[in-house]
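Hi everyone,

Forwarding the result from last night's run.
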Amino acid sequence: MKGNFYENERVALFIDGANLYSAARALGFDIDYRRLLKVFREKGHLVRAYYYTALVEDQEYSPIRPLIDWLDYNGYTMVTKPTKEFTDAMGRRKIKGNMDIELAIDVLEMAEHLDHVILFSGDGDFRRLVEAVQRKGLRVSVVSTIKSSPPMVADELRRQADDFIELSELAPLIARNQSDRPSRPSVANGDLGEEAPEHLVRSA
């Protein structure tokens, strides 16, 4: 995996759930979140791993709930909020669940406790956030992909980051091994099932 890491630096992960899910899906693999955490724990002193996603509140069962619960019990700090439903100009019902503000606030509040921010998102709206954090003396690595069609990372975000980590190169280290999956998905053993992250696309 490319990217510059130093042994004793304080690192935090900020994962835009919907964005990362879309990027991984575009590259044709599912993420093993246990392996992802292990990779970055080995790269430095991992202070915190944040995962951001929006939830549809009035659903009796949310397909993403098993994933959220698993992450919550296995080393991730979950940041969620309810989605908002609205009708667009064409009269179509839409669901909005943007977590950009929550992520940006957490990065800025955590900055004094960190040396290196790892941002899992390709959203160009984060360019100014990256710039602000860099002015505080932190390094910022962006994890996304240019290998998908179209690329999932905004060019301005990639340019602003100190390092760009290509998700397809990270995939061998964090991909879920399909052959190891039991016949029935089990959240307890870390297999979250194909359906678990699907809701991200609709809700965030």
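The first helix runs from residue 17 to 27.

Cheers,
N.
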